[in-house]
Amino acid sequence: MEAIIEKTTKKDQQIARFLIDEMHEFSKEIFGTRNKSIAIRIDNKKKTLEIPAKAFKLFYAILDNMADGKSITMFSSDAEISTQQAADLLNVSRPHVVSLLNKGEIPFTKAGTHRRILLNDIIAYDKKLQKNRNSKLNFLAKQAQELNMGY
């Protein structure tokens, strides 16, 4: 699956807000259980559809973002992305991503002269970076407390 990119319209935002408000109460029950699937019945249809609970959670997250007016981008986890898309996901410049690739920090392949990066590799790099950042912040906070700096 390639990227699905759709801009959220004002009408989409209004509908999503309404649905989030309607779904808010029972979504807590669904998210709190270990249900493997959710039954959905569409008005005027006698048939009930069973969908995976993970799909419902994703649907809820999409609606929540739309209600905030955010646009949605969806990639499959095994998608290959460009250096610019990777830079956008990491909130860094494209040249910085190229530098990380050249240093071997993130694996990539080449399609002609273009570098392609697996989305899973970008996510793994981002998690590693976040973990490193959190451990350093925790160290600094602990040090500030030991020095009685008021933190």
Topology:
Elements: E1 4-6, H1 10-32, E2 37-41, E3 48-52, H2 53-67, E4 72-74, E5 80-81, H3 83-90, H4 94-103, E6 109-111, E7 114-118, H5 119-146
Antiparallel strand pairs: 1-4, 2-3, 5-7, 6-7
Helix pairs in contact: 1-2, 3-4
Give short descriptive properties of this protein.
alpha+beta, 56% helix, 151 residues, extended, three-stranded antiparallel beta sheet
Give your account of this protein's structure:
The protein is an alpha+beta fold. The chain is built from five helices and seven strands, in the order βαββαββααββα. It has helices at 10-32, 53-67, 83-90, 94-103, 119-146; strands spanning 4-6, 37-41, 48-52, 72-74, 80-81, 109-111, 114-118. The strands form three sheets. It has a three-stranded antiparallel sheet. The protein has a two-stranded antiparallel sheet with strand order 1-4. A two-stranded antiparallel sheet has the order 2-3. Strand 6 (109-111) and strand 7 (114-118) form a beta hairpin. Helix 1 (10-32) packs antiparallel against helix 2 (53-67) and helix 3 crosses helix 4. The longest helix has 28 residues, at 119-146. The model has no long low-confidence stretch (mean pLDDT 86).
